[in-house]
Amino acid sequence: MTETTLTKKRFSLRDFFRSIDYKIDLWSRKKSWRRSLYLNRSLYLMMLPYLVLFLTFTVIPVVMSFLLSFTYFNMLEAPRWVGWQNYLDLFLNDPVFIVAIKNTLIIAVITGPLGYIIAFVFAWLINELPQRLKAIITLVFYAPSLVGGAVTIWTYIFASDYYGYANAYLIKWGIIHEPITWLQNANYILPIVIAVQLWMSLGVNFLSLIAGLKGIDKSQYEAGAVDGIRNRWQELWYITLPNMKNILVFAAVIQISNALSVGAVTTALAGFPSVQYAGHTIVNHLQDYGSIRYDMGYASAIATILFVAGILLKKVINKVIRRVGS
Questions:
Q1: Measured distance CA(273)–CA(283) in Å, rounded
Q2: In which element (H, E) is residue 92 found?
Q3: Per the domain annotation, does 52 fall within a domain?
Q4: Residue 266 sits in which domain range?
Q5: Is the preceding peptide bond at 49 cis, omega within 30 degrees of 0?
Q6: Does 185 share its domain with 253?
Q7: 3-class state of residue 71 by DSSP
Q8: Residues 312 and 218 placed together within one structural domain of the fold
Q9: Cα 324 to Cα 115, 123, 128, distances in angstroms
Q10: Is residue 250 part of a domain?
Q11: Is the same domain home to 149 and 35?
């Protein structure tokens, strides 16, 4: 093949792609959203790998789980359509699920807002420390979420024999005379789970709040002092929090997710299932039907309810955060 022929082929391909681009350009001018898509095509092209992964591993599984929630599917036979039966069974014929809802709501209502407030207060206080001390204290507070087996520390603290730290010190101080079976007693399991979950709440949202506080322009506080802000509480409400709204929403989403997804902690502390289902949560119920019984339709219905609850809670949090600074 001669050089002239190769040159002609290059020009023909170039003209071909130019003509396609010209046609797409004309097509995009008919709608505003098409035009925006066309003008930002290079950005969307860079986002494409992430969008493909997000669609494949997040969106499609959620949609499939929602559809499976209306079927009976045991992983061996083809899914059989049962309509709303799974949801009716959950709320009308499954007393363990009602217990799981109650436990999850108690954990979420206490550890969600309280853990969120604790994380922000500690982040706010630590942000006022000198730089070197700030880094050390941040690591100390974040360490529990770095240590994979951190929950096992609490199993030693609340061990049911004389060697458990809680029993040992209570006996030493004369408060009790016999060891308490903390994690085998239905009265103690839920309070212990709540305490451990609060201890572990200083995780990613804590670091995000630290970063958000660090990113606020200090000159705004000087301008606020000139405009009439007289104390730290006014600074917090009118300057700090409004500048952190996006970070506050992100931390709230993480906190909601952590509060609703409590399951591994209860299993590590109280076993599976826990005594009288005292520490049984929706996630534990989901694991029971999804990973042990392989009733995937029923498990999908549980997952859908959990997903909807998370979305509704996020909407409530967004409304609350919008009022900050107003």
A1: 12
A2: helix 85-92
A3: no
A4: 90-322
A5: no
A6: yes
A7: strand
A8: yes
A9: 19, 18, 22
A10: yes
A11: no
The DSSP code for 216 is S
Q: Which residues contact 270 (CB under 8 A, 6 or more apart)?
A: 183, 184, 189, 193, 278, 279
Q: Flag whether pLDDT at 135 surpasses 60.
A: yes
Number of domains in the chain: 2
Tokens of 282: 């929706």
- Structure tokens, 251: 């931390």
The residues near 142 (Cβ < 8 Å, ≥ 6 apart) are 202, 203, 206, 207
What's the pLDDT score for residue 270? 85
Cα 285 to Cα 291: distance, rounded to the nearest angstrom: 10
The mean of the pLDDT values for the chain is 81
Q: Which of 120, 62, 109 is nearest to 260 (CA)?
A: 109
102 confidence band (pLDDT: 50, 70, 90): very high
d(CA 322, CA 326): 8
Neighbours of 240 (CB within 10 A): 22
Residue 94 falls within a domain, yes or no?
Answer: yes
Closest CA to 223 of 232, 233, 235, 214: 235
Tens-place pLDDT, residues 235-275: 777 777 878 878 888 887 788 777 888 888 888 888 888 88
pLDDT in tens, 276-311: 898 899 999 999 998 888 899 999 999 999 888 888
- Look at residue 207 and tell me if it is in a domain: yes
